[in-house]
Design brief:
This protein has 84 residues and is an all-alpha fold. The chain contains 4 helices and no strands.
Length: 84
């Protein structure tokens, strides 16, 4: 593994797991009152586009980080809609 790939994986892990505390708080409290629906619609769209980009350039760090981030952000979006 090259240093560049390792750096990309570490950066991706940091940005990906930054969404986990929000997801866990929503899951625990079942409250999404302070979460912006449109922010999560836009962020999920952006993450999906980054994932497609990563696939197109065949970049493992970009693909992994955005695939996992998309799952977490989409779960938050779904819970936002569910707990309106």
């Amino acid at each position: 593994m090259t240093p560049t790939t390792l750096l990309g994986l570490i950066a991706g892990a940091c940005t990906t797991f930054a969404f986990l505390p929000q997801l866990l708080k929503i899951w625990k409290t079942k409250s999404t009152h302070d979460i912006s629906l449109w922010m999560y619609v836009v962020i999920c769209t952006g993450i999906l586009l980054w994932l497609i980009y990563g696939i197109m350039i065949d970049s493992l760090p970009v693909i992994l980080a955005n695939a996992v981030t998309l799952v977490i952000a989409a779960m938050i979006l779904i819970l936002k809609i569910k707990y309106r």
